[in-house]
Specification:
By secondary structure, the protein is α/β, with parallel strands linked by helices. It has 11 helices and 14 strands. It is globular and about 65 Å long. Helix content is 34%, strand content 23%. α5 crosses α10. Strands 1, 2, 3, 4, 5, 6, 7, 8, 9, 10, 11, 12, 13 and 14 form a 14-stranded mixed β-sheet that branches. The chain folds into 3 domains: 43 residues, no CATH class; 202 residues, Rossmann fold (3-Layer(aba) Sandwich), CATH 3.40.50; 99 residues. The termini are far apart.
């Protein structure tokens, strides 16, 4: 159903029914736009008030739904802050997490500690895929999830002596004042078809790009006409720096053993590329660049909750091929595995142009 609706939204499906549905979506987009304008007005006249945490707040977000590479960006910036000696915590919403029955380590039903910086306290299902993955990759950085990021932040201030917060997926979270607004833009598909939800993939109008203090273009090694994209951004905000980045592969990792494997291991090997992410093409292109021979591509919907039945389908379709997946998929697949049958590709965000600007602004 998700793939079918996306094919309608992104103008890939023809016919009277698809055209009628696009018209309905366009009307709903207009209503959504009016709602955004009302909220923006209420903040401007201070009927709705922005609150401030007693620490520095760095927001990392995007303008579209779907993957722009926020998780690798959050990890990278957290590491840069650690290198500067800053006591850092990450505040995330915890998208699609399942709240456990037990109250531990839930501080209340709205705030949960995925990691206290020393130990992971929640599963991927309980804390959310991205927060759990960040907890696996980062030590010394508390990660707290909850819709109310102000309450989460105050909890960190009281319990972790936090100096700097990273607001994960925070561009649309207007309740909280921030010191630095970083906007990620996917070079492969920066603004979709230009329409707001649900007619397109934009969370806000393009004019909202102006709010950002810094732009990071992602996947620039797989995209063309970067200057055209930069000029479009500069026409809206001519002052904020525009950085370029890539998702650089680091190593492969066994989901059960956590054993690291060199990237050369998959050279000239037949693989099944398994993913449930917003842009599987980018993941598959990376595997091809590593000289893996992709025999089959198995794509599930974004954030797909894998089951034993799915695992059986995956292993059946592999038929002797190596199964390679993303780290984000790995956190959902690992609890289902009984043996070491799947490898996850670890990637990191690498700033390829003007990293010194990012470090200075942090």
């Amino acid at each position: 159903m998700e793939k079918y609706l996306l094919s309608i939204i992104l103008d890939g499906r023809k016919g009277v029914f698809a055209s009628s549905l696009r018209l309905i979506f366009l009307i709903l987009s207009g209503i959504y736009y009016l709602g955004l304008q009302v909220i923006r007005f209420l903040y401007r006249v201070r009927i709705l008030k922005r609150l401030k945490l007693k620490a520095r707040v760095i927001s990392i977000g995007n303008l579209t739904v779907g993957g722009t590479g926020k998780t690798p960006a959050v990890e990278r910036i957290a590491r840069l802050l650690q290198e500067k000696g800053r006591k850092t915590a990450i505040l995330s919403r915890g998208y699609k997490r399942k709240i456990p029955n037990s109250q531990f380590p839930i501080t209340n039903r709205k705030i949960a500690v995925v990691s206290d910086g020393r130990k992971i306290l929640l599963s991927a299902k309980e804390g959310g895929d991205e927060p759990y993955l960040l907890a696996q990759n980062l030590s010394g950085v508390p990660i707290v999830v909850g819709k109310n990021r102000i309450a989460s932040g105050n909890y960190c201030l009281a319990n972790f002596d936090t100096e700097t917060f990273i607001l994960d997926d925070g561009f649309q979270y207007q309740r909280l004042e921030r010191d630095l607004d970083i906007l990620l833009i996917d070079s492969l598909n920066p603004f979709g078809n230009g329409h707001l939800l649900p007619r397109g993939i934009l969370r806000e109008s393009l004019r909202s790009v102006k709010r950002a203090d810094l732009y990071i273009l992602t996947r620039t090694d797989q995209a063309g006409n970067l200057e055209g994209l930069k000029n479009r951004i500069r026409s809206i905000n001519p002052f904020a720096p525009i950085l370029e980045s890539i998702h650089a592969p680091c190593y492969l990792e066994g989901l059960k053993s956590k054993r690291k494997v060199d990237l050369e291991f998959i050279e000239d090997k037949e693989v099944l590329a398994l993913s449930s992410i917003a842009h599987p093409e980018s993941f598959e292109k990376t595997l091809e660049d590593l000289r893996a021979i992709i025999m089959k591509r198995l794509r599930y919907s974004d954030h797909h909750p894998y089951t034993k039945e799915d695992l059986k389908e995956i292993t059946t379709k592999a038929r002797g091929c190596l199964i390679i997946t993303t780290q984000k998929d790995g956190v959902r697949l690992e609890p289902l595995l009984e043996n070491e049958s799947i490898l996850a590709l670890k990637i990191e965000l690498k700033i390829t142009k003007d990293q010194e600007i990012l470090e200075r602004m942090l």
